[in-house]
Specification:
Blueprint (H helix, E strand, L loop, with lengths): L13 E5 L2 E6 L2 H7 L12 E4 L1 E6 L16 H13 L3 H16 L3 E8 L14 E8 L5 H11 L9 E7 L7 H14 L3 E5 L3 H9 L5 H4 L7 H8 L6 E5 L7 H8 L2 E4 L1 H6 L7 H7 L2 E4 L12 H11 L5 H7 L2 H4 L19 E4 L6 H8 L5 H5 L3 E4 L4
């Protein structure tokens, strides 16, 4: 039984799971009686069932820094403070905080996360037993040729397909990764069919240096390529459906259409965007151009919480014209496309991963339920709704 449109929320009589994959979604008691023989039952009759939430961009290794950095528009000062504060933490402390962050995500309805790892902490130390992880090793060389070879060596590692972990690559940003290193990352991504995630067009300073060689970054990075970040990604062979662009606050003329044509994914992080007090995100223009926009939390160094319910609520607060269904899809179906696997996640339909969230909510219909779940700003308010999750039906 296949659906023309993915199911967003249901009070179905049963979701039948076999081998970690949804087999059927039943909305009637007769069907439930048919499948009961030999099945292990979990009663969710008083709850709304949805696909689990998917966090399309997080830096869980920075979770130890929660509350230690000041919000504000000075991004350069924030970066300097981040490096200083993070350097004071031992790796063991960062790893413990990362483990707690995984637990925090899973208790708020999230079943999958794209995690950026710049320190090589990996996934095993964090033991994300209740999350599906796209683990992306981050590299950069700051356009310094003396660092390119070492950065290339760090990204060259065996493909990891452990249980719930899939590997991806994460060149840091188009202004901190040289064309040579980008080309090397692209060869790995193509050869292994990996997702590639990169910070793109986040600040006006990076555009000023990339395209004109001017601004404060010129003193740090030296000669500019005099090319846009998107041009550099295209030149490396990365602009395509495996590419995950993060932020995109300052797209140039025609770049939205190029991103849409390439079927690249764009991730917006509402909490982090508000943290840096940035100008309004050009969402309407991205959607009009046909760009797929997903949601993420970024890190606790630039956000108050790692709660996708809060990100959805912030999205609706910033864009009152957005329908709840569309916001919810940004945190489930669209974000799930980052994982690139043959079995979809972020949808509740036959053939998809049985990553499911069950919500306690008295709403009488799907629309009122989605309106409620996408408006739960803050852990305290969201906690009153209650949610539990299954990963692969477990």
């Amino acid at each position: 039984m296949q659906r023309s449109q993915p199911l967003v929320a249901t009070r179905a009589a049963a979701v039948v799971v076999r081998g970690g994959v949804v087999v059927e979604v039943l909305g009637h008691a007769a069907g439930l009686r048919r499948v009961r023989a030999g099945a292990r039952e979990v009663d969710c009759s008083a709850q709304w069932l949805t696909p689990g939430l998917v966090n399309a961009h997080a830096h869980l290794e920075l979770s130890a820094l929660a509350g230690q950095l000041e919000p504000g528009p000075n991004f350069a000062a924030w970066v300097r403070a981040l490096i200083q504060v993070r350097g004071a933490w031992p790796r063991s402390g960062l790893a413990r905080a990362k483990s707690k962050a995984f637990a925090q995500l899973s208790t708020s309805g999230t079943t999958a996360v794209v995690d950026i790892d710049s320190l090589g902490l990996g996934v095993q130390r964090a033991s994300p037993t209740r999350l599906r992880v796209l683990w992306c090793r981050e590299v950069l060389d700051a356009f310094d040729s003396s660092r390119t070879r070492a950065a290339s060596a760090r990204i060259e590692r065996a493909l990891q397909r452990r249980a719930l972990c899939t590997e991806g690559v994460a060149p840091h940003a188009s202004f901190t990764v040289s064309p040579e290193l980008l080309a090397h990352v692209a060869r790995i991504a193509v050869r292994r069919s990996l997702a590639c995630t990169i910070h793109w067009s986040e600040t006006e300073h990076e555009l000023l240096w990339l395209e004109r060689g001017l601004g404060p970054l010129a003193e740090v990075l030296g000669p500019s390529p005099k090319r846009s970040g998107l041009d550099l990604l295209a030149q490396a062979g990365l602009l395509g459906p495996r590419l995950i662009l993060v932020h995109g606050n300052h797209p140039g003329a025609g770049e939205m259409e190029r991103v849409a044509a390439a079927r690249a994914l764009l991730v917006h992080c509402p909490g982090s965007h508000a943290w840096f007090q940035r100008a309004p995100f050009p969402l309407a223009r991205y959607l009009k151009a046909g760009v797929r926009v997903a949601l993420g939390t970024d890190s606790l160094a630039s956000n108050a919480e790692l709660d996708m319910r809060r990100e959805m609520a912030l999205m609706r607060r910033s864009f009152a014209w957005l329908e709840p269904e569309r916001v919810f899809s940004m945190a489930t179906q669209i974000a799930g496309e980052a994982f690139l696997g043959p079995v979809p996640i972020g949808v509740l339909e036959p053939g998809a991963r049985a990553d499911i969230a069950a919500w306690n909510c008295p709403s009488a219909g799907a629309r009122p339920f989605l309106d409620a779940v996408t408006a739960c700003a803050g852990t305290a308010r969201a906690g009153t709704m209650g949610v539990r999750t299954w990963l692969g039906g477990r």
